User: Fold these one by one.
Assistant:
Number 1:
Amino acid sequence: MNAFVKTLLCTSSLLAALVVLQPAILASVDDAQSFALQAAEPYVKEGFQVREDYWGGDLGSGEKKAVRQQLFKGNEYWFWLGTEVDRAKVSVHIYDSDGKLAEETDGWEKGHFAAAHVIPKTTGSYFIIVSVEESPEERTHWALVYGFR
Amino acid sequence: MIPFNKYLKLTAVALIGLTLCAQGARTPQHIDIKQLSKTVEDVVVPLPNEIFGALNKLGAVNWKEHVRSDKGTNFTERPRIALLLGTVIADGFVAVQAEDAASVKEIGQRVLALAKGIGVGNSITPHAKAIIEAADKRNWEAVRQELDRTQNSVQQAMNEVHDEKLSQLVSLGGWLRGTEVLTSVVTKHFSADGAELLHQPDLLSYFQTRLEAMPEFKLPIIREIEDALVQVKPLIDVGNARIPQESVRKINEITTRLGYGIVTRD
């Protein structure tokens, strides 16, 4: 009986912890997306259409992630990266399919926001490299959104 | 003597310049793409209006002639509904380009009916309503945004119930319809820049891989699309060479045939 009660208590505690923690874990990527969208906001006034779809995940300090994206010559693109971790430093850069830096020089990095701008010279695949340069957290959630005009 | 304010501004400009230089110096000018293979995320499939926007910049397009009135049969097989849903959303983008309010409203209703058919109607109802309202006001930017939201909500709802494969079929349906319209426009008014918009080999490989992982969908249209992508691949995977007019015409034939197959019963 005692063993049964103990097991029941353990299981219910674990379940309760999962129920409490799961939204927190999910919320972090959602929060990162909110920050990325916040960075994109001023560009909407300049005619950029920001996509609803986005990439997200978590990275440790100094880790990078590559995102492959089809871009079309004739369009202009901005990629905005955000994280909810205040004191983190993130960066985003764009390379063409040969691995050559393809971005314009007006990209920027401001703490937990970063952005990169590209006017593709050819239609094809490009690599967007996102990186968590520094962070007080072991894992830092990130989200990348993009817009075009 | 430099006034203090001017001195402050000069210092700020110099500091910003130094920061930018330091950033520029840190960013490698070249990376080894092969080394990235293990850390590359999946592609986000471009929306048809991303391609249409680039096409518009090459010259005026008569979008009205690409608006389709046949919105497809009522299917019961979920993969077929998913494919058709992607196609109909793409038709929505064409109708927006043509500024055809009546078609947009009809598409809004159709999207809702199809979403209900695959069990994600609840998440689409507000978007369908917003599409119809924005079309009434001829607010094309809002319609575009709602179509994007619609596709995103449909796919999110599907992913939440682990129907990722259906979600991928929605993207595929949209991409096929977008390619059909793109090749139709470029076939009629050929330009090398227009044809270059078809240079999407990685995206095509992405769809091929996804279809290969759907052996359980034993529908002729799915296998037909799989075979067609094999035919299209060499026509668009041309490296640095240009895509000739003949290839554009062939891709248009293939995608038109597939488009017909998606909206009609076998």
Number 2:
Amino acid sequence: MDKTEIRKPRSEIEQMEVDLLLEAVFRRYGHDFRNYARASVERRVKNFLPKAECATISEMIPKLLHDEAFFANFLGQFSIPVTEMFRDPSVYGSLRKNVLPVLKTYPFIKVWHAGCASGEEAYSLAILLKEAGLYDQATIYATDFNDLVLGKARDGIYDLESMKLFSKNYQSSGGKQSLSEYYHAEYGGIVMDQKLRRNITFANHNLVTDGVFSETHLILCRNVLIYFDRVLQDRVLELFRDSLVRGGFLCLGSKESIQFSGVKNDFKVFDDKSKIFQKKS
Amino acid sequence: MHYETHFKCVVVGASAGGMVALGKLFSMLPRTFPLSIIAVQHLHPSEGGYLPVFLARKCALPVKEVEDKMPVLKGHVYIAPANYHLLVEMDESFSLSIDARVNYSRPSIDVLFESAARVWGADLIGIILTGANQDGTNGLRKIKECGGMTMAQDPETAETPFMPSAAIDAGVVDRVMTLEKIGAFLSTIDAEASNLRCSKW
């Protein structure tokens, strides 16, 4: 072999190591991160190196294969959900003003919040539906692949500190009351009103491996697709398309788009700024 | 010397005072500038996309705020959106993330620079401008490791000198220059690239 082929830049070797590590995680535990956006995956894997006390990425592979507790730690580091109530308030404003009036025409409304993490945005949706007088005819399926955060979502307990931001977001989204109408202080934090929980079903669903939710009228999936590569993103967008009724709505994160995807022609742009798309009928 | 012509991309990081500095730098670039430019400016999380509009008015090249999966094109200027990290994938498209802040910042200059270094290696130029943070130092280090060229705005001419100084003190900067010199340098890439094309012709 030519000597120049033996010498490889470190970054190229690191990419091989990440490939091997993701393959090991998938085959050993069934968690499939192989089609996650690679640049972020590499960052997260490397950030875990000091905690794992490993010098190289490949050194982590035997630990991941043989030590289940080590894997649990790794997984925790790997899915770091960041969310807030009424995140990007203008989007919730548009849902209030433009989308809910259309949904009102259905006798029964099915909403799927895909990748709900610790549930803040699922409760935001519930509040929106309640204030539009649609709560009783609605069901919100809030799903995530991470059972740990789903538990947090079910509890609906958040820290007092974040409520300042959440209240501000709620007001700028067009909220007419005080957000404190929907929670009470307890356990040194706040607990969301149980009445809001009634029509929310929190469930484990993995966008990478699981299937369609049929006859959905509105899907929210915000800042989840940014973590997927183009192949996986396309597959998930197809899943959303097939889950929606004709004329159903898809709401993505503020910097996400279907413009670079294969489902581009199956939707029309409903509100470009808020990234709300409507399935063509 | 025609060595500059192998460059494919320029990444720029700026913080306090950066809006004016970026405007000044980008206004010096010719319409025919042949590389992609990607910039991270530290912004308040709720900033609503004014920066790309402002820079578009100063710059002869098309300026875009990045959306996820956008391809990186030659002769375009890309700006990181507020409250997202900006990364580049090996297929030369963008990805975004809302992972934890790095150096108290999201977007973080280090995150962009480190991911761009993986993609372009020696064909990358990294530039640190004015700022009150030390974001970008690790990013320049990575660019240097991968064989790229690193530059910092002369701290004495920077509105806030801390950020370029931090990078210079860490020994990761190849060239220290004023904004005018950086702009002139980048403009020669265009001239030399065209010369090269002419001589081939």
